[in-house]
UniProtKB/TrEMBL annotation:
Pfam families found in the cross-reference section: Glyco_hydro_47
Amino-acid positions noted as binding Ca(2+) in the UniProt annotation, renumbered to this chain: T471
Protein name (Swiss-Prot/TrEMBL): alpha-1,2-Mannosidase
Family matches, as SUPFAM superfamilies: Seven-hairpin glycosidases
Major enzyme class: hydrolase
Lineage of the species this protein comes from: Eukaryota, Viridiplantae, Streptophyta, Embryophyta, Tracheophyta
Residues of the signal peptide: 1-25
The keyword Membrane is annotated on this UniProt entry: yes
Swiss-Prot/TrEMBL keywords: Calcium, Endoplasmic reticulum, Glycoprotein, Glycosidase, Hydrolase, Membrane, Metal-binding, Signal, Signal-anchor, Transmembrane, Transmembrane helix
Amino acid sequence: MSCPLHPKRLFLCLLISLAFFVVDPSSQHLEIKKKQMREKVREMFYHAYDNYMTYAFPHDELKPLTKSFTDSLSELGNLKLEHLPTDYNGSAVTLVESLSSLAILGNSTEFEKGILWLSENLTFDIDARVNLFECNIRVLGGLISAHLLAIDPTNRLIQGSYNNQLLRLAEDLGKRFLPAFETPTGLPYAWINLKNGVMDNETTETSTSGCGSLILEMGSLSRLTGDPRFESAALRALRQLWRMRSSLDLLGTTLDVVTGEWIEYSSSIGAGVDSFYEYLLKAYILFGKEDYWRMFRSAYLASQKYFRHGPWYHEANMWSGKPTYWQLTSLQAFWPGLQVLVGDIAAANSSHREFFHVWEKFGVLPERYLLDHQIIHPTMKYYPLRPELAESTFYLYQATKDPWYLDVGETIVKSLNLYTKVPGGFASVRDVTTMQLEDHQHSFFLAETCKYLYLLFDDSFVAKRNYIFTTEGHPIQVLRSWHEKLPETYFSGNWTLSKSGAWESRASALSLQVCPSIALNSRRPEQHRESACHVPDEQINHKCWSNKECGVDATTCRLRTCSGVGYCGLWNPL
Ligand code: DMJ
């Protein structure tokens, strides 16, 4: 608005400008839209939750097409129902997974009711073989997070008395996990029988994420109970895994827990490895141990060097760094969210856009998309209501406040309602090319998909406290008493995510070497920051004899190479 300097006009202009700022129509419009969307997501959550409670509870998950149930916690162990004890009624996994979402939605009645039911009925003394990773992120993580929310007086979620029932359940479950870690390497078996420990002839094969992303839940359990065994078991496994990395700082996808040898050498940020990266950074944020930082930094830099191709991430051989598979897997869509925590907003934004384009192309995100042929993987055409794109969208909106991310969220909500909503809940998509449905509503739809969408449109929950979210979307508060580095000046408003200001959103925890949250709030723009992937050339004048002497370009994160006349540069075409 231009205001010519005539006193009367100036006064008028000032008034108009003031009115403009007080009732900015565009921000008003945004608030209305956010409110509408928040209510839509709330409806989605309750449609999924109520149907689960009516047709499936206390079994583990809902089958929304037939309005029946599946005991997926045990089916995750490939056990058919007839192999389970006849009186087994499930472990109410979806209820456990819903508690933190109910808390975020402010439904204290249902939250408290759920806790009471679980404390009176849930038992882990069952002869069922379960997947350690899944049981850890869904059940242990769900219980711990709900316990922390229940004892937080600011949330006022409990009216009656709460006597740490969820923590006791979590401790019992954690103890049942411990035999899985009794291997020569300390790497846990992927499967454990909750009653009898590791079964005879149990497979010794596991994945990197399966044995390398247990530390948030098991570490929290140790801090809460004072029993160090959980944290040390998870940390020992993590360290062992890290020792097994290649000289390029890459890890394979599957390995043998007894011999400590790699089985699948192809490495990626997607399925089988994804949450390994996530837990290194989040463990650093939660516990402040320098070790996590060092591991994460090297692993992250290697991921940028060997997997990244513009906004895309392909897979690479862990020993040679050569590309193996050029495919997008839908789990990779969590990566931009992680990059927000790192401070790499530009990179996060560009990858997120590509994932969203694929979503728009098919209506939802196919499980695998072949980048080199630009087609869907012939046998992995499904979309099981996964949360990862919504998750990244939430983080990016927090970091940038760019309303475009709200539009992305709206598109996701529309697609979910259009393609997956059925009278009995929300159904997974079996084939994204035909939108044929499958009779399964995974518990992570309530723990993550609905939660991240809700938080995108209403972040009042994260504004109260500093939380990190586990890989299953369960919030755990960052506490000074658990943290090795949080300074005395630690305050408890939310600063885990960057909120505003150009430099703040560019700040990189990788270069600042501190918990990203502190970095993002330190308001010291003079502090030196650099790109997360930058590796300088060996010589200050950029001269070289071989590629080895060249580093990684700070802006594009591409490897620099040595030219014919001996200068490092971006000589290789994309
Ligand atoms: C969730 O169970 C977790 O996010 C896990 O880390 C991998 N992805 C699924 C949902 O897609």
